[in-house]
Amino acid sequence: MQVRYLDADPLTHETPLLAVAVPRGTVEPAGFLGRVDEHLGGAVTRVLAGGDLRGKMEERIVLYGPEGGPERFLLIGSGEPEKMDAEVVRRLLGRTVRVAEELHLDRIAAWLDAAGTVDEGLLGQAAAEGAALAAWSFRELKTVGEDGPPTLVERLDLFGEGDGEAIERGVEVGAVLAEAENLARTLQARPGNVATPSHLAAEAERVGAEAGFEVTVFDEARMGEEGMNAILTVSSGSDEDARLIIMRYTGGREGDPPLVLVGKGLTFDAGGISLKPPSGMEEMKFDMSGGAAVIAALKAVAELGLRANVVGLVPSSENLPSGSAVKPGDVIHTLAGKTVEVVNTDAEGRLILADALAYGSRLKPAAMVDCATLTGAVIVGLGHHASGVMGTDDAVVDELRAAGERSGERCWPLPLWREYREQLESETADVKNVGGRPAGTITAASFLSEFVGDTPWAHLDVAGTAFGGEAKLSYQRKGGHGVPTRLLVEWIRSRAERR
Ligand code: BES
Ligand code: MN
Ligand code: ZN
After folding, report:
1. What residues are neighbours of ligand 3 (ion), with CB under 5 Å?
2. Which of the residues in the chain have pLDDT under 50?
């Protein structure tokens, strides 16, 4: 989708649809809405008086305009004025795109007004994000049927009052972030037989060449030389070869310690010998969501030219049962030197992450953050509205929480107290890979913490947020959401701007 800001009067702009927000409690249309009312001969006042539109969030009505100017006006409820924020703007623009799809319109326009509660840069950014995220769809594996392809919104013209240059810069940032998150969604949507570990590696190489970061890929032979036996063990039941994707972006000063992002790139999780039940297993193609977000985050960081050195690591493998698969009770020697008893082969994400985190900590990062669809338990705890965040460094956890609020990809902390570590005690090895039912999300994080050394580190469990059976937000669809791409980029942005 193309998004641009126009410093012009939208009432003389030719567009099939112009969206204008109507806050809750509006009786007499004021400001730009007042001008629209006049332009429509008092129709807005009559709609409000008739009670057809009360300004409830995403409530809507479409009115036709007179000849010249916008063909249609979408009056869209924006809820309580005091609750106006960047996320409201994303959802309003997302809803505008959905309305346009229903009306088969491929171009739209919107008037931006947050009544001063959101600064202009963020307003433009959130608008571009909401619209461009909503406009994404995954069509590459559908043939064109009798009705032809559905209409997708391809262009958005934004108008608004205030500092036009700030809005324009925000729009550019938002477009980059949305395109990156949409890349993550596309990688997520590709099924396991397409998005294999080597496919993810090739995609990272392609994106790196386009956006401007360096990509190195370790194959199984190289991982064997390095001693990355945890990744190789998870991959041992699969005919597809595992990969470790290493991405390096150098936007900071030479020698500055990097920020390291690690993403779980499990391209299909059948559970291995500890086989998952069949129902819903197809969703386990999304088990590479963390890896997709890290590739996408590097794309955005490079395109925005952020002043930071960033390394992205994506350990990628399948987890399948076979005669060569790892068995419950097997013990592996990890890259960090620690031995792990594999009690449940379905707790494979933490194994591939163990080697990637150990590799990452050798880079002596300023901070390291991993993201992974790691536990079903985080969905029990937090549902689909927040990722779980835990770490060895409270400052990094707090930074992620703040970045979550700003990006709308929120995360919420769980305690990583050492008492939980006792659940991982093994009879035969240094540690076992599962800690039983209680606090499954925390014991998974506790396991990961064994492999980060003294690196300031935090972990995001995105099992409940990276994808979903239903689209709950106007700018998402059923399937992969690309989360936490924008959260990761916002975190790096907050660290990069600090110096
Ligand atoms: N990939 C799954 C976690 C998952 C579950 C992600 C549901 C998204 C939705 C992970 O590899 C897994 O199987 N975890 C197990 C751990 C258990 C064996 C300790 C789980 O959560 O059941
Ligand atoms: Mn699993
Ligand atoms: Zn998994």
Report:
1. 266, 269, 287, 349
2. none
